Amino acid sequence: YLPDGTLVWLNAGSRMTYSQGFGVDNRMIELEGEGYFEVTRNEKVPFIVKTSRMDVLVLGTKFNVEAYPGDICSYTSLKEGKVQILENETEDEHILSELRPGTQLVYNVQTGQYQLNQVDIEEIGDWMRGQIVVKHKTLQELIDILKQKYEYSFELQTDSISNIVYNIVLEQESLEEILNDITVITPQVHYSINYGTRTVIIR
User: Fold this and answer.
1) pTM, rounded to two decimals
2) How close are the terminal C-alpha atoms of the chain, in Å?
3) Most exposed residue of 67, 74, 81, 92, measured as fewest CB within 10 angstroms of its CB?
4) In the predicted model, what is the mean pLDDT of the chain?
């Protein structure tokens, strides 16, 4: 619980900070990684999640933010209520989009471009149940997910396979089992693992 009664779950490798005045002067938190939030409603003091390139402005709602340092894209998915996504690259923040339940905003931190996707409300925050549903994700996006889940570094050596799209469910399998599944689904993809350096090469 945060001081204002908001519930927060943080995924592995994630960090959240907030100031001493939280809940009185402001309700601003900074997030690195992934968190699921059930925000206590307070229209006078909006709840704000700050990430490296965008802010999420909230009144009272349930939503998931994924913004790991080093990832190409960040994701904000709304389960209940309403949130605004603000780009914070310049001093004059402007609204990228206002999300409705079942909508996800995907923000490319390199290009500043974004797109809106429809998502299954029941799958938002699925990582809290030890399950990750991968729907319409490219190999590059899947690699970003595997980096966080298994804490391995990945090197993709063949650009032509980076945009292959996958629909799979990650549960409690080992990294090797997941990589074997990927090669069964797409035989053109090959991998090697160095357990000593915790590195995976995909080609």
Assistant:
1) 0.75
2) 44
3) 92
4) 90
